Amino acid sequence: MAQLSPKERMKIDRQHMPERDPFVRNKDFKEVNIGFQEACAQLEAERCLRCKDRKCIDGCPVGIDIPEFLDLIAAGDIRRAAECLLSANSLPGITGRVCPQEEQCEQVCIRGKGKGTPVAIGHLERYVADWARENMDIKQLVASPSGFRVAVVGSGPAGLTCAGELAKKGHDVTIFEALHEPGGVLVYGIPEFRLPNKIIESEVDRLRAMGVKIVCNVVVGRTFTVNELLEQEGFDAIFIANGAGLPIFLNIPGENLKGVFSANEYLTRVNLMRAYDFPNCDTPVIRGERVVVLGGGNVAMDSVRTSKRLGAKESILAYRRSHAEMPARAEEVKHAEEEAIVFKFLTNPKRILGTEDGWVKGLECSQMELGEPDASGRRRPIEIKGSEFVIDCDLVVVAIGTRANPLLTATTPQLKTNKWGYIEAAEDGATSMPGVYAGGDIIRGSATVILAMGDGKKSAAAMDKYLREVKKTPSRKS
């Protein structure tokens, strides 16, 4: 494609990501987005204005050279674009699907200021990552062995990223995963229709090819403590990325009824344990006819869209604020609306109603109105007195957040934690214990995949420096 002037680039509309029909896709777990074709990807990449002040790079938590990446796509050199992408991002097939680019690189894109729309950086990342997976033998260069052994606790986005970066530097890395498959929240929390497991598997396989060992069914804090990994198992450093997987409930009457799930359990059963394919897979899940999901974030959106795919006649999302305050990604909300999800805004649950034999039969709620902004910057929901009403339902999924599981920190008193139980860590991930670093949701609370990856990348650089400049001599235990 010939070089275009900024004026010509401004005339190119943002390219639409093709999607499957809403009333077909809401009955199965196949991926919603279809992806760009080459001509469409090149045209979208041409929309980049080639700014001198490249704000998009600063907007990316893993520091992808986005302008160079876009230039290569526009020129049709997808192989070099993939090399550029992979040099900075260990998991591009994942982030191209679930990273909230609209709040990061695309938010600061100059092309999107004023009357324009930003370059679809996330869609192009997905396109190049998928092309690379099908067309390249992706081999990461690994330095000569350093002799140092590093343990990574958790195989979610922070752990996988840190492990990959450390392996590139020549360290012997072992990931310990509590569940029976690697991937962490990527496999148990994000449904197939948003992030197919084959994408995660390919990224994990690439790490294994780099020499990273992954040991599943190991709960650090019970199978081993952090101190035992250092003192008895001979690891020279540890990166803790065990997430924040302890569900939060509302503490309202009726939460102990049959037919009430935390989003964690609901999504883990369906995604990781394949309950959607019962009885071919032997994990059952209750398939409600009228399902209410409580919450307004991405996890709530995943849960309510999952319930629709499991056959619910009506899937309802109840959120105590308005549409404008929802923290879920705009794309996920749009997809849910297209798939006939029912939204009940300004709706606050007060108690779950049950039958005589202990099953959910309804949800009593109050109507809310919005007052002044609270500490989050969003308008505070205020109950309207006398506005109670009941939503008939037979399944309730609570998706209002998670917090840190205390199992690991309770067995490691040297680790400083804050009042919410999250590990305190410096900017580079260093904790109160020498040689122990942490990142992802265990230091932030529930956050995004790409922020967790950024933590993993920064901590890997800091750990490499610690091992070579402070530790200096590897432990000799095997």
Description:
The mean pLDDT is 94. The strands form 4 sheets. Strands 3-2-1-4-16 form a 5-stranded parallel sheet. The protein has a 5-stranded parallel sheet with strand order 6-14-7-8-9. The protein is an alpha/beta fold. 33% of the residues lie in helices and 16% in strands. Helix 3 packs across helix 5 and helix 7 packs antiparallel against helix 8. The radius of gyration is 23 Å and the shape is globular.
Looking at how many chains there are and whether they match, the oligomeric state comes to single chain
CATH structural architecture of the largest domain: 3-Layer(bba) Sandwich
The CATH fourth-level homologous superfamily of the largest domain: FAD/NAD(P)-binding domain
Strand order of the largest sheet: 3-2-1-4-16
- Structural class comes to alpha/beta
Report on the biggest sheet. Answer: 5 strands, parallel
CATH topological fold name of the largest domain: FAD/NAD(P)-binding domain
Gyration radius (Cα, Å) is 23 Å
Counting DSSP E segments of at least 2 residues, the number of strands comes to: 16
Runs in which pLDDT lies below 50 for 5 or more consecutive residues are none
Instruction: Please identify the top-level CATH class of the largest domain.
Output: Alpha Beta
Strand content: 15-25%
The overall number of domains is 3
Total helical elements: 18
* Helix coverage percent: 25-40%
What would the principal axes of the Cα set say about the shape? globular
Mean pLDDT: 94
